[in-house]
Design a protein that fits this description.
With about 475 residues, the protein is of the alpha/beta class. Helix content is about 40%, strand content about 10%. InterPro entries: GrpII_AminoAcid_Decarb (IPR050477), PyrdxlP-dep_de-COase (IPR002129), PyrdxlP-dep_Trfase (IPR015424), PyrdxlP-dep_Trfase_major (IPR015421), PyrdxlP-dep_Trfase_small (IPR015422).
Length: about 475
């Protein structure tokens, strides 16, 4: 016999106790918190109401189709969509990006080896799409001062195999908006599509602009922008996971659809990569968006804007920290001076009850600390700054984490393609992610692990983390009956 309801709930609560908090404003990555308990409760209620509804067939569940199109309508108003635009709900930003790339590829069957042109700051989901769909990613370095995409360099990278050109609004790593107008113009002139990844900014930038923020044009207002992705589980503050992919016209979207009738079952017809999909997240998103409305989001965005300004003012008083690029959204990247290191500061912040995200070195730039501010965090900025100042002081006292030069040299010489399972086990031990018996061990402090991963070439880092994930996700004994 299975466990009782109370026992199951107790088990769930015990397992959840080790997770990062999703509410309270102290987790500055992965989650987005409005701070509004009633909106959260409403989202959870709608999630439960439609959890068993199936988005596979809109004729069987027309309620989901209605909710999807009302959300697309709301997004269209935010994103200056023209008459005739269309949109689709997906499971998240990565799926929206995958579909944008797949659609661009399938719209050009005449191109045998399609390519897409990306700034190096484009989200890694585009690399995933390149891997899945066989579209070559042509990476173009960004401006080394502003970290915005270099429109001229991207234009020079476009050729007759280019099916898609990408811009970010904003880029995740640095929080800046690319020059979408120039990028889209050159894409259109070359007959290529232009996708704007506004997954993180699409539901907040329009409200910041209404409040006076000066940004380059980035929506469908820009001629040449053919599609935009925007996540609702970010700054629409809805439960995970819902995103929208909007296309300027229905004709542009049509290659996104998939149908298969050549088998004895039902004719498969999908608008996304998923077939069966729970209606719960979509209903939760619809409920929260309908509840908060335009005025509610304007208030939340103003709160975040005030928080960003207070954060930037406070950071000026911590001399070891520098803002990497003037943020144009709700994201801030920080670098540190030589007296300490980012990874130790992140550990110190976690010990004080705050989660901030380390970002590895890239393209000659040192590692950085990433902060995502949401509405619930904004009122806590003074408390956050105090914890950050204490964490920096502790990191300075400890000194920077140093990786032995011989380890740096060894890491640079390793070809991950030549390593077998035993070698990966040994490397995981060296990295501090496994014990001598090969069992995974998550350290209490990640600074030494992150410092070693930071000096590893990207391919080795990827291979190590894949090996770690593989071992982490293997079956384990259960304590359930």
């Amino acid at each position: 016999m299975g466990l009782s309801t109370d026992e199951v709930v107790a088990r769930l609560e015990a397992m959840r106790s080790g997770d990062l908090p999703t509410h309270g404003g102290r987790t500055l990555a992965y989650v987005y918190d409005s701070g509004l308990a009633d909106a959260d409760a409403l989202g959870r209620r709608a999630l439960a109401m439609f959890a068993s509804a199936n988005g596979l067939d809109p004729t069987a569940f027309p309620s989901l189709l209605q909710m999807e199109q009302e959300l697309v309508g709301f997004a269209g108003r935010l994103l200056d969509a023209p008459d005739g635009y269309v949109g689709t709900a997906t499971s998240g930003g990565t799926e929206s990006i995958l579909l944008a790339v797949q659609t661009a590829r399938d719209a050009r069957p005449d191109v045998e080896r399609p390519r897409m042109v990306l700034p190096t700051t484009a989200h890694a989901a585009f690399h995933k799409a390149a891997h899945y769909f066989g579209v070559e990613a042509v990476l173009v370095p960004v401006d080394p001062v502003t970290f915005r995409a270099d429109a001229d360099a991207m234009a020079a990278a476009i050729d007759d195999r280019t099916v898609l050109v990408v811009a970010s609004a904003p880029s995740y790593a640095h929080g800046v908006v690319d020059p979408v107008g120039a990028i889209a113009g050159t894409a259109a002139a070359a007959g290529a599509r232009c996708h704007v990844d506004a997954c993180i900014g699409g539901w907040v930038l329009p409200y910041l602009q209404r409040a006076g923020a000066e940004l380059p044009a980035w929506t469908f207002e820009v001629e040449g922008v053919t599609s935009i992705s925007v996540d609702l589980h970010k700054y629409a503050y809805t439960p995970k996971g819902v995103s929208l992919l909007l296309h300027r016209t229905a004709a542009l979207r049509r290659p996104q659809f998939f149908a298969a009738a050549d088998w004895p079952g039902y004719t498969m017809l999908n608008s996304t990569t998923q077939s069966t999909k729970s209606g719960g997240p979509l209903a939760a998103a619809w409920a929260v968006v309908t509840h908060l409305g335009d005025d509610g989001y304007a208030t939340l965005a103003a709160q975040v804007g005030d928080g960003i300004r207070a954060l930037l003012a406070g950071l000026a008083a911590i001399p070891q920290l520098t803002v990497v690029a003037a943020p144009e959204s709700t994201l801030v990247a920080l670098r540190v001076d030589e007296s300490c290191d980012v990874f130790t500061i992140c550990d110190e912040m976690q010990s004080r009850g705050w989660f901030v995200q380390p970002q590895m070195a890239f393209g000659g730039e040192p590692p950085t600390m990433h902060l995502t501010l949401s509405a619930a965090t904004a009122p806590l900025v003074p408390e956050f700054l105090a914890a950050l100042a204490d964490s920096v002081a502790a990191a300075v006292a400890a000194g920077p984490v140093r990786v032995a030069p011989e380890l740096v040299a060894a890491a640079g010489a390793i070809d991950p393609a030549t390593l077998d399972e035993a070698a990966f086990d040994g490397l995981l031990q060296v990295a501090g992610l496994a014990g001598a018996d090969g069992e995974l061990t998550l350290p209490e402090r990640f600074a030494p692990v992150n410092a070693l991963l930071d000096v590893a070439p990207p391919r080795l880092r990827e291979a190590l983390l894949v090996a770690f994930l593989d071992r982490l996700s293997r079956p384990r004994p259960t304590t359930s009956p």
